[in-house]
Amino acid sequence: TGVMVIDATIPIGLGQRELVIGDRKSGKSRFVIDIISNQKGKDMICVYVGVGMQAAKAKATYELLKLREAMEYTTMVVSTSDDPPSLQYISPYVGTAIAEHFMYSGKNCLIIYDDLSKQAKAYRQVSLLLKRSPGRDAYPGDIFFLHSRLLERSSKMSRKLGGGAITALPIAETQSGDISDYIITNLMSITDGHVYLDANMMHEGILPAVNSQASVSRIGSKVQSSLLKKVGELASRSLARYAELKSFETINTEVAEETLRDIRRGKKVKEMLAQLSSVNYSTDEIVVLLHMVTADKIEMIDLTELGTFKLQFLEYYRKIVTEQFKQKCEKSKDLKEIDGEVSVILERFLRQRSQETKTKTD
């Protein structure tokens, strides 16, 4: 996806269905738009399905994708909030039919449903007008089948059948962080995992606001390279440890040095996973950045300077990295195989940074 927190801790494979949930204004639409933008040059066809969207938002989404040159490989299917419920109900099926055309042609396709909770409400309206018996929350009895027959069409074909795939990212809106809602739980049982976007993290300015502790991918590390899997596990462990220990920051008592180190590392991992919109990270870049922070190689860098450090380091790294090292990051089995080279790259970068700072001061 090009999104560091997803590729490292909640990996998504071809043909997977990964639910994206979160409260209103938690950055769900922007998150999937960034993923679409990151598919540029990766031979991936994208289908964006907007259900019951405001016309202004649909236009803004189109303009943003056009600005990022993503419309060259993206098809938009939109039913607005002014359209009749029957049209809002059927638009995800139209988008899926388009995606299936590409899948059966042997191509990889990414489909976004924004969002399926609105489709469920539209289907409820249609069912009530048809005088069908209402069930829980006035939804008809076949509401589960509505989404299962839609999402089960996302899959990975065998080589014999062309090798194409549809990867689905359905979106559903939660109310005040409640993930026990009827439609949400239905979708969670159908999909292969979920990404939870935390409104509190959004308000703190952490983007993307992915709560990796509350998210899950049932495909998991099976689709990751060995090194990406290892740094992802170390990063997840550091975040979990930080979540346990962060209460110690507010308590005015003596804390063991090891505990303080775990807290500092957790904070830096959290900051390292933050990502500006439209920024794309490759596998080797994620491996190098997360290895540096989880192995305490950048302890000398203050937390407040980490964002600037990351941008400057990546600018340097992209100039000097060799294709051989990139392959090593993707194919090696042990972090020890790249540890020495990462230390050398970091040392050279810090020396150059120090010289540039000294020159500016002089």
From TrEMBL:
Localization: Membrane
ATP synthase alpha subunit C-terminal domain mapped to chain residues: 224-337
An example Gene Ontology CC term for this record: proton-transporting ATP synthase complex
Keyword terms of this UniProt record: ATP synthesis, ATP-binding, CF(1), Hydrogen ion transport, Ion transport, Membrane, Nucleotide-binding, Transport
Family annotation (Gene3D superfamilies): ATP synthase alpha/beta chain, C-terminal domain, P-loop containing nucleotide triphosphate hydrolases
Main location: membrane
PROSITE patterns the UniProt entry points to: ATPASE_ALPHA_BETA
Signal peptide start and end residues: none
Pfam families in UniProt: ATP-synt_ab, ATP-synt_ab_C
Domain ATPase F1/V1/A1 complex alpha/beta subunit nucleotide-binding: 2-217
Gene Ontology molecular functions: ADP binding; ATP binding; proton-transporting ATP synthase activity, rotational mechanism
Family assignment from sequence similarity: Belongs to the ATPase alpha/beta chains family.
Record text on subunit structure and interactions: F-type ATPases have 2 components, CF(1) - the catalytic core - and CF(0) - the membrane proton channel. CF(1) has five subunits: alpha(3), beta(3), gamma(1), delta(1), epsilon(1). CF(0) has four main subunits: a(1), b(1), b'(1) and c(9-12).
Annotated protein name in UniProt: F0F1 ATP synthase subunit alpha
Species, as recorded: Candidatus Beckwithbacteria bacterium CG23_combo_of_CG06-09_8_20_14_all_34_8
